[in-house]
Specification:
By secondary structure, this protein is an alpha/beta fold. Helices cover 37% and strands 11% of the residues. The strands form three sheets. The protein has an eight-stranded mixed β-sheet with strand order 7-8-12-11-10-9-13-14. Strands 2-1-3-4 form a four-stranded parallel β-sheet, sandwiched between helices. The protein has a two-stranded antiparallel sheet with strand order 5-6. Strand 13 and strand 14 form a beta hairpin. Helix 9 crosses helix 12 and helix 12 runs antiparallel to helix 13. The radius of gyration is 24 Å and the shape is globular. 53% of the residues are buried. The N terminus is likely disordered. Bound molecules: FE2/S2 (inorganic) cluster (FES) and magnesium ion. Belongs to the IlvD/Edd family. It comes from Paenibacillus odorifer.
Length: 583
């Protein structure tokens, strides 16, 4: 098959014709080959005249959160056939948090590229994207934004609540507690094994409002998943129904020609941010939403998150910030009920994958449990948790989850105790000779996108053991790393530019004074510009972690946290040039 083939553009832009028609209806050599090879798989002449629906199945035994996807795909296919389409299942890379080293964030962009190219390079008229674990849904939304063929997200759903001794357990908020108690000698090996078996007792992703639940909620809030999809527990029969409906609906989207860029507008992204802030969602969502927005050609400054956060009451009572888990959220009405409560703060005219607007989708929505989903009048907190800090220590911004900060640290001046890298931190943090007190500011360098690499979730710098013994539970901590959705404390993260590219963070030395003022949104290193310039002369970039392969590509092309950690070459050209000229 050496003959030159149609370019991707000529297939994708073949007017109103379905993309699959260009493959299957031509009477030339390639039409013959496409029909012949496809019919050999059992598809009939009649099938080849129907819209082809790609089903992106990210099942993998290396990704627990997607272990049940083959079953869900059966229901999606049923829906596609019923609606008059032809399902064609395909795989992509699948990334699950527990196994991937050094961090799944390294592979998010790889998954986005894989998914985009699979969508563009095949006779697919529309696609169902099955995602679940933390980085998978953002990767798929980034791909959908770039490929811009009709697409719908089906998330795999959260696990059922863990149960032990009458207690409800959450992964992985309670994983920390059990292992700490075991380390302290308070529970035995046997008791630890019982807890291991009880906490993850079904298919599905983590069932607290961590990154997976946050991104599933975002897929719904942004309009790319059917209403109600996010919260249905993975093993609940209603997720099968949702899968079938999703299969039917993608055929409808193809018929109506509704594409991701018709749905994921600037207003839809604001809706997603509002839902995230009202839900106490993960800070990781900020990086992912910036990346998605930029794929659509739109800048998304950190200040937008700060503005929406300060206007949005926190009303969803879910762990780690609240009391309940996804199972109770589902029973309380799920994302549609939350959005109904938030309706005055949402852009109601945004189009969604139902073919209707947000407002139209919410007509029937209602809260069934007012303790899980609070009202705007009686919120858990009057605003969302995220504040954006600026100053010479983070000229391109840093984040702090202000609701998790101890009151006395919201305005603080302290002297830096510097760790040059994650390895240095691990080596010295519990050293009895470390010069540190409760007013110190712990600074971790080289844990950012290029530095660590791929910005691992290590921004919750541990309190030094000798201070823990004195009863100290919170300190100001600064890094260019990320944090998991379950972290708490005065943690300043995502500092940009990161240390590994020569951000001011790289120049901090032990004993320097640092000032944090959350209400003024300020983060300052009290060192003169002249002294910083002197230090910069002797600063040397750390050696890259990779000298070949995907790791090297990541190192060379990844953007900073405030630009979503996407690869520069994956952005639309105009936006890329604009952003690079601002550097
Ligand atoms: Fe997949 Fe937590 S490990 S969502
Ligand atoms: Mg996580």
């Amino acid at each position: 098959m050496a003959e030159c083939r149609d370019s991707e553009e000529s297939v994708a832009e073949s007017g109103d014709k379905l993309k699959s028609e260009a493959y299957f209806q031509e009477k030339d050599l390639w039409g013959f080959i496409h029909r012949s090879f496809t019919k050999s798989m059992g598809y009939t002449e009649e099938d080849l005249r129907k819209p082809v629906i790609g089903i992106c199945n990210t099942f993998s035994e290396l990704n627990k959160c997607h272990s049940h996807f083959n079953e869900l795909v059966d229901y999606v296919k049923r829906g596609v056939w019923q609606a008059g389409g032809v399902p064609m299942e395909f795989p992509t890379i699948s990334i699950g948090e527990p196994y991937v080293k050094p961090t799944t964030m390294l592979l998010r962009n790889l998954m986005a590229m894989d998914t985009e190219e699979m969508m563009k390079g095949h006779p697919i008229d529309g696609v169902v994207l099955l995602g679940g674990c933390d980085k998978t849904v953002p990767a798929q939304l980034m791909a959908a934004a770039s490929a811009n063929i009709p697409a719908i997200v089906l998330t795999g759903g959260p696990m059922l609540n863990g149960r032990l001794g009458g207690r409800s357990l959450g992964a992985c908020t309670d994983c920390y507690g059990f292992t700490l108690e075991h380390k302290a000698g308070n529970i035995s090996d046997e008791e630890l094994a019982v807890a291991e078996n009880a906490i993850c007792r079904s298919d599905g992703h983590c069932m607290v409002m961590g990154t997976a639940s946050t991104m599933a909620s975002i897929a719904e809030a942004i309009g790319m998943a059917l209403p109600g999809c996010a919260a249905i527990p993975a093993p609940d029969s209603r997720r099968r129904h949702m899968s079938e409906r999703t299969g039917k609906q993608i055929v409808e989207l193809v018929r109506q020609g509704i594409r991701p860029r018709d749905i994921m507008t600037a207003a839809a992204i604001e809706n997603a941010i509002t839902v995230t802030m009202a839900s106490g969602g993960s800070t990781n969502a900020i990086i992912h939403l910036i990346a998605i927005s930029q794929r659509l050609g739109m800048k998304l400054p950190l200040e937008t998150f700060d503005r929406i956060s300060s206007q949005t009451p926190f009303i969803l009572n879910l762990r780690p910030s609240g009391k309940y888990q996804m199972e109770e959220y589902f029973e309380a009405g799920g994302v549609p009920a939350l959005m109904k409560e938030l309706e005055p703060l949402l852009h109601g005219d945004c189009l969604t994958v139902t073919g209707r607007t947000v407002t139209e989708n919410l007509v029937q929505a209602a809260t069934l449990d007012g303790d899980v989903i609070r009202t705007l009048e009686e919120p858990l907190d009057s605003q969302g948790g995220i504040a954006v800090l600026r100053g010479n220590l983070a000229p391109d911004g840093a984040l702090i989850k202000q609701t998790a900060v101890s009151g006395h640290l919201k305005k603080h001046i302290g002297r830096a105790v510097v760790f040059e890298s994650p390895a240095d931190l691990n080596k010295r943090i519990d050293d009895p000779d470390l010069v540190v007190d409760e007013n110190s500011v712990l600074v971790l360098k080289n844990a950012g996108p290029k530095g660590a690499p791929a910005m691992p979730e290590i921004g919750q710098i541990p309190i030094p053991q000798k201070l823990l013994k004195q009863g100290i539970r919170d300190m100001v901590r600064i890094s260019d790393a990320r944090i998991s959705g379950t972290s708490y404390g005065a943690l300043i993260v995502h500092a940009a530019p990161e240390a590994a590219v020569g951000g001011t963070l790289a120049l901090v030395q032990d004993g320097d004074e640092i000032e944090l003022d959350i209400s003024a949104r300020r983060l300052e290193l009290k060192v003169s510009d002249e002294e910083l310039a002197r230090r910069r002369v002797s600063w040397q970039a750390p050696k890259p972690h990779y000298d070949r392969g995907y790791g090297l590509l990541f190192h060379e092309r990844v953007l900073q946290a405030n630009l979503g950690c996407d690869f520069d070459f994956l952005l639309p050209v105009e936006l890329r040039e604009e952003l690079l000229s601002e550097r």
